[in-house]
Amino acid sequence: MKSKKRIVLAYSGGLDTSIILKWLQVNYDAEVICYTADIGQEINKKKIISNAKKLGVKKIIIKDLKHIFIKDYVFPMLRSHAVYEGVYLLGTSIARPLIAKDQIKTAKKYDAYAVSHGATGKGNDQVRFELGYHYFGPKIKIISPWRIWKLKSRTDLINYAKKNKIPIPKDKKGAPPFSVDDNLFHTSTEGKVLENPKNSVPEFIYQRTISPEKAPSKPTYVIINFKKSDPIGINGKKFKPANLLKKLNQLAGKNGIGRVDLVENRFLGIKSRGIYETPGGTLLLHAHRAIESVTLDKQTMHKKEYIMPRYAELIYNGFWFSKERVKLQKIVDLNKQKVNGSVKLKLYKGNITIISRLTQSSAYSLKKVSFEENKSFNRLNVEKFINFHKKKLRN
Hints:
The protein is an alpha/beta fold. It is built from 13 helices and 14 strands. The strands form three sheets. A five-stranded parallel sheet has the order 3-2-1-4-5, sandwiched between helices. A five-stranded antiparallel sheet has the order 10-9-8-13-14. α1 (15-27) packs across α7 (154-163).
């Protein structure tokens, strides 16, 4: 008897992907393999397996990619100080390339002819996933249900779920949930009341940060240790990448740090409003900029600042594996071996204050900067410097 063709579905166990799973079974004569990437999101493995089995799935794969995600994706991005449109630390964007890569790897392992995902037809994630699919599996078919099925709205999904006896989760207020994406680096929340930018954000939707008003009245101090531009420890104690970020998430979250309310410009041209929480990542960004300020030269730092918006846009648009992003990464990492030391931060009611920077680097010269010592700095050269540059005023 000839075996069925196979489809590997990026499966979370939630409403959307459970509906997609059923829809694939109904509309394609193929075995569906459920694939879940564990990148530090709130995950209930028993529930994922149970929900998939209830729908007749025999092969359920849950891959632990947390350390790879932080070490090989988040840390390189943080070294670039990538921030999209001034505030977004790209928490969802940076996760998609890894998921796409490993999903294709899984499809090849099980000789699947197609892969599928649950990204909506208006969102960025469909682009991010599919660019990754094309890069690693150009001959593998892509099934994007939101672009081809007849279900057009959240209401349609709920009705489909009821018809097919698929459990419908509830939010904290007892209604169908917001659209939430989370991983070890961040949580994003979209939809419902948030869609209208005039509406304020209900406090109950925040999942990993306490409100600054309710944060402790006593500040928290933390030292982040860096080696070759990557964080390696907290308060002198070494941590593996995923464990380090987990610890920083806890410290920042309880101090109300890392919230962003953003109306962003999607790659497809649509504006959307999202609530992002990136507590530990916000600490790392501030600390990394601080340690670079005393370890890197002006030219290197300014070059990084110049390319950062483009680097951030490439990640946001799904081009992590592009030649251009790889080329920019080489520029970012050109002098990373010089970025060593530690930064002490003060965390207090949503704010981060740099307390001190400690390094063995000679990039910062006490002799040159001191008001008490002028032998190493020739003040007469300043006049020549100004005279040279004044010519540019009339060019």
